[in-house]
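Hi R.,

Here's the input for the zinc ion complex you asked about:
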Amino acid sequence: MRAEAITEADDGWTGEGDGSLRRLLSSARTQFAAASRKVGQKPTQRLRWLIDAVQRPRDEMIEELRLSSSNLAFELCVFAGIADPREYRSRFVELVQAIETVDRSARRLAQEGRWLLEFPGDVSGLVIERSFRQVGVRRRAHKPPRGEAFFDARDPVVKVLFRIDELIASDGARVCECLSATCRLLFVKVRRADFCSERCALRERKRRYRSRLKERERVNHQNSEEK
Ligand SMILES: [Zn+2]
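And here is the predicted structure with zinc ion in place:
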């Protein structure tokens, strides 16, 4: 990475010389570390980060991606395994379109249990890797092993879509829609949760309690009229 390139691309950057590059790199390191913590490593953590990210308001997302200090760009880098956040900052339009597609696909997954991911029209430079066995490991089974596939792309936006698809393949069944009629947020189900949050669960419990109470009053009223 050339220092000039970084300095030019970073609007908030006014320093010069080695000191400024050092400071820039150290702030990038700090942001990468924070992004790694936020995205997480376990599939359920990564999936939760993703589902929260795709449901963010689009204007807010575009505004943030355009900033040189965009946390979201760093988080996307961590998620997709990309080294330079500028790859996302410069492609924010395509990226937000791709995120919109993922948001719709995730909604459909939660409602119908079906995952369909459409890639942008001009995809090129795709890489598919399938591995069948580790070298030196002898298999006794007669059944040939199923190939494990790894899809990759040079395009950073397509790369992020492949990582999303991978995550859905392993943990997609956890993507649910909050059962609260006034919420309907997508969330990642762990254990037996039906609601996205404790707040929604409580609101729904109260609502059901009130409607049971009303029903009981109605029945009592009917009974007293019949007497
Ligand atoms: Zn909810």
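One thing worth noting: The radius of gyration is 24 Å.

Cheers,
M.
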